[in-house]
Amino acid sequence: MGKKYVQPEGTRHILLPKDIIEGNIDKSKMRDDVKQSLISLSKRLKSITPEQFKMLSQKPELRDTFICLRWLAYSVGIFSNEYIDPNTNYKKVKKERLMMELKIMYFVHGTTVDNAAGKCSGWKQVELTDLGRERAIKLGKIQKDAGFDVIFTSDLIRAINSAKLAFPNVKHIQDKRLRECNYGDLDGQDKSLVIYEEHIEKPFPNGESLKDVERRIDDFIKFLKDNYHGKKVGIVAHRAPQLAFEVLTKNISWEEANRNDWRKAKAWQPGWEYIIK
């Protein structure tokens, strides 16, 4: 059994901003009536005390409902998963949090079957090679003392399996925003056909542009800032999302990011650090 969380006495939840709460709920795949229940719950929790919440949740006729709603609220994204003392100056806390830096370590997935064949996978699902698995395990040994609180991956199997091999004892969260660029008709085709410099603004045939990738990574970074300040975050993902991190965190152009891409010089390293302010 996992360790039971004990809420500090006299504390209350910090809710995420209203627009983020409603946006998270709207993006979820729940029924409309459940969405409305969650929105109503978030409004009520702005004033409810922990004692009132506990009392209501223990009423036999409401207990199961509160347990389900509380679970949904955390999984969808209503709470920021932090607590403060009600006597704390919230404006001061908010200012201090905004001033904090969020450090991220970015890792690329291990060598895949397509990589070995000189192909670019895009959104195609492709397995790691034996070499890719070995390198993922080696990466984990290099980073064994990193102390990550969470590892984010895309929902593509090559990133998921690389993270499992490298960081088996850390919580993993899959996020579709971390997917490789969608090369559309060129998914799984020879890498000579996938020319990033030609698709900064122009999408790949039936796919995405690099600017499309930048937009979803920008949204992901905002999510991290709202929910993971003070945490050590690792990411296992792909080429285009990493270049988007370069563009967004270093304030450089896509032309410069492509020009300095470490892959061109084969200058791999066991992780890249990005500072989110």
Describe it.
The protein is an alpha/beta fold and 277 residues long. Helix content is 44%, strand content 14%. The chain has helices at residues 18-27, 32-44, 50-57, 63-76, 90-99, 113-116, 130-142, 157-166, 210-227, 239-250, 254-259, 262-265, and strands at 12-15, 79-84, 102-108, 119-120, 150-153, 172-174, 189-190, 233-237, 272-276. Strand 5, helix 8 (157-166) and strand 6 form a beta-alpha-beta unit. Helix 1 runs antiparallel to helix 2 (32-44), helix 7 packs across helix 8 (157-166) and helix 9 (210-227) packs across helix 10 (239-250). The chain is globular and about 65 Å long.
Order of helices and strands: EHHHHEHEHEHEHEEHEHHHE
Quaternary state of the chains: single chain
Mean pLDDT score? 82
Structural class: alpha/beta
Termini, distance in Å?
37 Å
Please bin the fraction of helical residues: 40-55%
Radius of gyration: 21 Å
Shape: globular
Give the strand order, joined by hyphens, for the main sheet. 6-5-8-3-9
Number of helices: 12
Contiguous runs where pLDDT drops below 50 for at least 5 residues: 1-8, 81-86
Instruction: Specify the biggest β-sheet.
Output: 5 strands, mixed
**Which percent range describes the beta-strand content?**
5-15%
Total strands: 9
In terms of topology, how is this protein built?
Blueprint: E1 12-15, H1 18-27, H2 32-44, H3 50-57, H4 63-76, E2 79-84, H5 90-99, E3 102-108, H6 113-116, E4 119-120, H7 130-142, E5 150-153, H8 157-166, E6 172-174, E7 189-190, H9 210-227, E8 233-237, H10 239-250, H11 254-259, H12 262-265, E9 272-276
Helix pairs in contact: 1-2, 7-8, 9-10
